[in-house]
Amino acid sequence: MKLGILSRNSKLYSTRRLVEAADQRGHEVRVVDPLRCYMNITAHNPQIHYKGDILDQFNAVIPRIGASITFYGTAVLRQFEMMNVYPLNESVGISRSRDKLRSLQLLSRRGIGLPVTGFAHSPDDIDDLLATVGGAPCVIKLLEGTQGLGVVLAETKQAAESVIQAFMGLKQHILVQEYIKEAKGSDIRCFVIGDKVVAAMKRQAKEGEFRSNLHRGGSATLCRITPEERATAVRAAKVMGLNVCGVDLLRSNHGAVVMEVNSSPGLEGIENASGKDVAGMIIDFIEKNAKPNRTKTKGRG
Hints:
By secondary structure, this protein is an alpha+beta fold. The protein contains nine helices and 16 strands.
């Protein structure tokens, strides 16, 4: 097969591992920077051009689209979908997962466990908003934040009010969530491929930090998950419409709750913690599923 990887940097660990895994299985693979793609949007012959070439040879594409380029990256992916190229993850699923509010609303509608979450526009509603999530301490998140950026733990009601007012004053949309104290600064990353959790790791925040992201200095270890946690992760992936994703869970007193669904999960942490060839499993999934006209949305949505 001819595979395309949509990635801005061919030297990143995840991109390199996907190239290696595809090469080992005898596939042709090309790394394409989505920001250098330009599109001919026409009714009968949609095309994608890249550095003077027409990209019409791929059987499947693997989107590794960073949060900062979601809008343009998903537009490129939609164009591939219109050309009947199989996407590992569809543009609609990526867009859903990147919108924190939309993703929580979709998960909530399907009855998937979540931290109690509030969303408001007016500073006049801050008191009631904080009461809705159980008061302080609470977690305040920018809707556009990634890798732990734009996430604040407010220990007191006064601190929470100050942070919320500051973000609102900057015209930023925020979520306010209950603080799951019993998680003790750790979460579980479940790596889902298809309808299975293929690997899981526990991420622990460094001393004095509550964010467990590896980019924030957190550590990762192999983790055994419960059947409930496994089922929750798979259901969350299906609600988002993602074939491959990282589902981040917290262990709360009322069961597993989903914190986030990541449509471009990194491979380094999960492969090092689990010792598994996750990149190879992704290529295996593509081999079994990459056929023309298998895209559900065909670029719609």
